[in-house]
Amino acid sequence: MIPFDLAEPHTLAEAIKLLDPDDAAVRPMAGGTALMLMMKAGVFRPTRLVSLSKIEKKYSGIGTDKDGLRIGAMTTLTALEHSAEVRKHAPVITRTLLTLSNVRVRNVATVGGALAHGDPHMDLPPVLMALGASITVAGPKGERKVAVEELFTGYYETALERNELISEIHVPPQRSKHAVYMKVTAGSADDWPALGVAAVIEPDGAAIRSARIVASAATSKATRLKKAEAALIGHRIDDQQLARAADAAAEEADILADVRGSASYKREILRVYVGRAVRAALQGGAQ
Fold first, then answer.
1. Which domains does the chain have, with CATH numbers?
2. DSSP E strands: which ranges in the chain?
3. DSSP per-residue codes, 103-159
């Protein structure tokens, strides 16, 4: 690695001032799990890293209010995994973290970093997107709210400016909704997925009142599958209706081939796992 400057501000405001909107070689660093790998591989060569490890502790907290669950962007994935509030209000997050990489990574990686990195293979973004989560983004001009659904703009690309930072994640109350996340890996259960599918379903008797289906890993970015949702909403669910939703998902998803599988393989497993995820959600989401 080439030499670089390391800044360690004590406040979020100071950190924002140290970022340069015109210099891609100046980057913020939260847990650094992905950034360090990029630097070791020579993919990224920084001139300055702005460490967020010493900013205010309030950005590492988890709490709830009448509007739902609030998670500081510097909260580690381990803290998220063991939070009783997360388990109560969004248990699908707790279940997802059990097979998200390994405990060493979860001890260091942060929620905000997992979102800001824009990696389509991450497990947490599709789950938060399906839950209808949003983020608070802080920058020189103040704060703005962004739906997680609108955060990802392309392969490793987000709607964040270079001098903006995620400060908080907000997950709205789920009430009678049931959520599931399923991943398909070519290796161990905690490996990078070839496909991730998150489903949040609100049943209405034998029918579905609302549905949010998100695919990731097989796509260039975590992507909400609105045609598949439309095939579910208002319908009684049987094998035929599930097949329609699965076909709609396979048709609308922008599938990418990589070392984990061909596009045709990933399209077929997407068709299968959309059906499985919806069924699991309808059964209570305890998958």
1. 59-171 (3.30.465.10), 179-282 (3.30.390.50)
2. 5-7, 26-29, 48-51, 62-65, 68-72, 134-139, 142-147, 152-154, 157-158, 165-171, 178-185, 193-204, 207-216, 223-224
3. HHHHHH-BHHHHHHT--TT-SHHHHHHHTT-EEEEEETTEEEEEEHHHHEEETTEES
Query: H helices then E strands: how many in the chain?
Result: 12, 14
Enter the tokens of residue 184: 């398909």
Tokens 């789920």, residue? 174
Contact 176, 202 (CB under 8 A): yes
Record the tokens describing residue 28, joined without a space. 């913020």
Residues 6+ positions from 204 with CB-CB distance below 8 Å = none
Structure tokens at 72: 């500081």
Contact 61, 83 (CB under 8 A): no
Which residues are CB-contacts of 31 (< 8 A; sequence separation ≥ 6)? Answer: 76, 108, 109, 110, 113
CA distance 222 to 118: 9
CA–CA distance, 62 with 55 (Å, rounded to integer): 16
Tokens matching residue 33: 């799990």
CA atoms within 13 A on the CB side of 108: 12
147, 116 Cβ separation under 8 angstroms: no
Assigned token pair, 2: 């080439």
186-228 pLDDT per residue, tens? 888 889 899 999 999 999 988 999 999 999 999 999 999 999 9
Q: What is the pLDDT of residues 235-284, one digit of tens each?
A: 999 999 999 999 999 999 999 999 999 999 999 999 999 999 999 999 98
Residue 72 three-state SS: strand
